[in-house]
Amino acid sequence: MAIWELIVDALKGAHEEGRPWLGSGEIAHAVEAIAPGTNLGSVRHNARFHCINDPSKKHSPGLRYLKDPRLITDDPTMRGKRYRLLTEAERRTFLDQPRDDLDQYSYTQVMEWLRDPSAGLAPAGGDEDADPEPGDELGGVALLELHLEDYLFRNWKQHFPHLDLFEGPRGREFITSDPGVGTIDFLCMDRDGNFVVIETKRDQPDRRAIGQILGYMGWVQARLAKGRRVSGMLVAGSGSDSLRMAIAVVPNLELWVYELSFSLHRE
Asked: pLDDT per residue over 155-171, tens digit each?
């Protein structure tokens, strides 16, 4: 069995245990458990080489990620990154429109492109003539975009003590069975057993975000709810007046705004 096939089997096994994301070291140990004696360095390399948004993919012999995309990473810019398997719908989307520049974008941007390739991707370098957004000089908002989902997951009970992730950790990035719907950032249940859909957005989303989260809520209502209530939470860095007015007339949908703080002190 090829190393990349062992990696796929290892990630599938972890996903079935409620762990869709694994670091490269975790993948290596999981592969070793399946096939003792496997070269762990080769496992790490193969994970990167079959990942559509890991910068190391360009060193892959034969550019494997273009021909056989298998993985996506949550943060192409940092060590300690984690990987998960692409869904079949995500694989098909990439194979239909393969790109070699996805490592220049955040995970959130890549996921939005995979959900709707027709929307395209903003230039990775941004508009050189545009004024920087507050916080971008130090990577504030841009950095938070990469980690907002992960931060909420790791501090779940602090921010959402009244909610439990649906089916445990699988509620994070809940993969729907409909390729046209895609992946829900967080699917939760409240104390009364009702469903809550959470969609996270960098900074200030536009009104298209409402259509996106309503699509998720509609899917949950049709496929999972069985008469239970479905509500939604749009978590963003800010909200425009037009966005707030639009949300105000949508039943069961709320806007939550996060705040970024930074402190530095001498010990």
From this structure: 899 999 999 999 887 78
Q: Yes or no: say if 194 and 217 are a contact pair by the CB < 8 Å rule.
A: no
In the chain, which ranges are E strands?
A: 22-23, 71-73, 82-85, 163-165, 172-175, 183-190, 195-200, 230-236, 253-257
Task: Take residue 131 and report the two structure tokens written for it.
Answer: 């004024």
Query: Residue 174: in which H helix or E strand, if any?
Result: strand 172-175
Whether the Cβ atoms of residue 60 and residue 102 lie closer than 8 Å to each other: no
Beta bridge partners of 83: 22, 73
- Looking at per-residue pLDDT, the higher value among 232 and 118 belongs to 232
- Predicted pLDDT at 68: 93
Backbone dihedral angles phi then psi of residue 254, each to the nearest 5 degrees = -125, 150
Q: Using CA atoms, how far apart are residues 74 and 54, in angstroms rounded to an integer? A: 9
Neighbours of 138 (CB within 10 A): 9
Output the pLDDT for position 141.
Answer: 43
How far apart are the C-alpha atoms of 147 and 106, rounded to whole Å? 10
* Residue 181: closest CA among 212, 148, 155: 212
Strands 82-85, 22-23: pairing kind: antiparallel
Residues 6+ apart with CB under 8 A from 78: none
What is the structure's pLDDT at 47? 92
Report the run of H or E that residue 197 belongs to, with start and end: strand 195-200
Predicted TM-score of the model (pTM): 0.51
Angstrom distance (rounded) from CA 213 to CA 197 = 7
Single out the residue of 59, 97, 58, 91 nearest to residue 72, CA to CA: 91
What are the backbone dihedrals phi and psi of residue 37, each rounded to the nearest 5 degrees, phi first?
Answer: 95, -5
Phi first, then psi: give them for residue 167, nearest 5 degrees. 60, 40
